[in-house]
């Protein structure tokens, strides 16, 4: 019933916002000189403020990149922190231009909310985290456990399927926000915390004693995470996709934040590089006549390629320590699943 009520409220908001979508989002962003981006705002590695108050993370980088494509390098972004319950209605109603908030692409969300998923900036799966003192080494040992989860997420349904399939019982303890869920786990209101593995890594990194907790090996779901936009504005939808495709293509082509200017000034560069940096082919104008030829160059200039963003925020040398090698988040050419259409 909770899921149905969320869908109904989002559909109503989407109908009310139909005019907003037809007004063209790129025009709106240019008019206010600011992209409004919905994020978690409290998930280290994905979207959380640093000590100076600047939003940082893989999801935040996407917002900076999209703003750069429309407004130029380092274009203005206003971040709106949204709970899992709030996020879809906030997007459908026009409160935010885009949702970049570790959101799973599912059929129900794709087909019934009036929203379009773009592509994936992190391919994940749900798992379980426990304190080592519990003495549990497998999710199959969790019969009768109290499990903390964040409400309004795919976590709840996945967990129900897992426990039912394995003939186990559990007690769900739900919270509205990730910080509240973490606090419940830290205060021993539950035995287990369940979420996407990336979120568990983020939460563990901020525990008072991260080494006391362990993520169990079983991954029980597919969680392809990526930005979401409203339906009804294909121009903005295409741009939102190609911001992700651009940083993936940039990584394939060896274009980085440090060398993108060198490539842009090289008359003998590979044609694919010229198309990416905007000196040949008019790629950005094909997306929208309102964009500068350098729109995708501006993305890479602002946030670097996908690999740079990944390693900066969630990679092996960060507190999250998520090694990319051999995972779905590696490029297709290195055994992963990330694959961008060609720039031509």
Automatic annotation (TrEMBL):
Signal peptide region: 1-23
One record GO biological process: amino acid transport
CDD domains membership: PBP2_BztA (cd13692)
InterPro entries referenced in this protein's UniProt entry, alphabetically: Bact_solute-bind_prot3, Solute-binding_3/MltF_N
Entries under SUPFAM superfamilies matching the protein: Periplasmic binding protein-like II
Alphabetical keyword list: Signal, Transport
Domain Solute-binding protein family 3/N-terminal: residue ranges: 34-263
Domain of life: Bacteria
A Pfam family of this chain: SBP_bac_3
Homology family: Belongs to the bacterial solute-binding protein 3 family.
Protein name: Amino acid ABC transporter substrate-binding protein
């Amino acid at each position: 019933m909770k899921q149905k009520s969320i869908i109904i409220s989002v559909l109503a908001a989407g109908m009310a916002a139909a005019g907003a979508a037809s007004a063209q989002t790129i025009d709106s962003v240019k008019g206010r000189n600011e992209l409004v981006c919905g994020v978690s705002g409290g998930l280290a590695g994905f979207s959380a403020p640093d000590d100076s108050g600047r939003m940082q993370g893989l999801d935040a980088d996407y917002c900076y990149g999209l703003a750069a494509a429309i407004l130029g390098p380092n274009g203005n972004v206003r971040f709106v922190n949204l709970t899992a319950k709030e996020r879809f209605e906030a997007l459908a109603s026009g409160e935010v231009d885009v949702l970049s908030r570790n959101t799973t692409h599912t059929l129900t969300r794709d087909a019934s909310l009036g929203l379009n998923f773009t592509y994936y900036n992190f391919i994940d799966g749900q798992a379980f985290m426990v304190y080592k003192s519990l003495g549990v080494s497998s999710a199959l040992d969790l019969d009768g456990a109290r499990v903390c989860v964040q409400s309004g997420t795919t976590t709840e349904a996945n967990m129900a399927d897992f426990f039912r399939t394995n003939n186990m019982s559990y007690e769900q303890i739900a919270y509205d926000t990730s910080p509240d869920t973490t606090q419940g786990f830290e205060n021993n209101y539950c035995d287990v915390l369940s979420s996407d593995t990336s979120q568990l890594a983020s939460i563990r990194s901020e525990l008072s004693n991260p080494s006391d907790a362990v993520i169990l090996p079983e991954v029980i779901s597919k969680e392809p995470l990526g930005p979401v936009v409203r339906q009804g504005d294909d121009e903005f939808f295409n741009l939102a996709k190609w911001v992700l495709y651009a940083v993936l293509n940039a990584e394939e082509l060896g274009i980085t934040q440090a060398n993108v200017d060198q490539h842009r000034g090289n008359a003998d560069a590979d044609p694919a590089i010229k198309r990416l940096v905007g000196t040949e082919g008019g790629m950005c104008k094909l997306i929208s006549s309102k964009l500068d030829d350098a729109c995708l160059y501006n993305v890479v200039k602002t946030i670097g390629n996908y690999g740079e963003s990944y390693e900066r925020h969630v990679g092996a040398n960060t507190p999250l320590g998520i090694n990319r090698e051999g995972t779905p988040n590696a490029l297709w050419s290195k055994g992963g699943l990330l694959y961008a259409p060609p720039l031509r």
